[in-house]
Amino acid sequence: MKTALITGANKGIGFETAKQMAQLGYFVYLGSRDRSKGLEAINKLENMGISNVELIEIDVTNINSIKQARQDLENKTKALDVLINNAGISGGLHQNISTVDIEDLRKVFETNFFGAVQTTQQFIPLLKKSNVPVVVNVSSELGSLTTHNSTLNPNYKIYDAYSISKTALNAFTVMLANELKSTGFRINSVSPGYTATDLNQFKGTQTVEQGAKSIVKYATLDNDGVTGKFFREEELPW
User: Which positions are annotated as active-site residues?
Assistant: First the structure.
């Protein structure tokens, strides 16, 4: 049975992604910063008849927590097939880059960018033991510089801190995919689209089921799959 670790999986898109991956036959390690909320999520899945799930406590902003999660996972499985860096925060509004508080910007980057980088770094050795290691960085169209330069959508004008953190995450995707290209890794950024979660006060126009679909699609690539790209359902511009 293939294995997957999903950060920030106790709610929202992360939870739905965990459910869909488990239903496809993966053993899913549900990453949650809060143990009690993580256990609630596990219980909810088990009540749906899904038993191939287990909690992993992990705070992606705390390197000691990540290292402990890695040790916990190493004690449970010989290899990790899929890492989905889903944990993220939106930050407060408004986030105009000319006025956004630097500490608020740092806080967004700490989770959305540095959290994903240091989590991936710690789990690469376990991923390398998979036949087809896959990393999905959950990004956003708001991270697309091309779209920022061409859209009149007002949502692109108020989430500058969040947007920049996702642009940086996309750059991490490209750099890591290029570095590990010869090793069989499949590493991509994936946007779930504007999905109704607490990240946007449930204003999104998609359901979590729809939002998780693209993530699952690129989390389940085989050895012929693409790497170093940015997708929703189809490829997105950087």
Answer: 162, 166
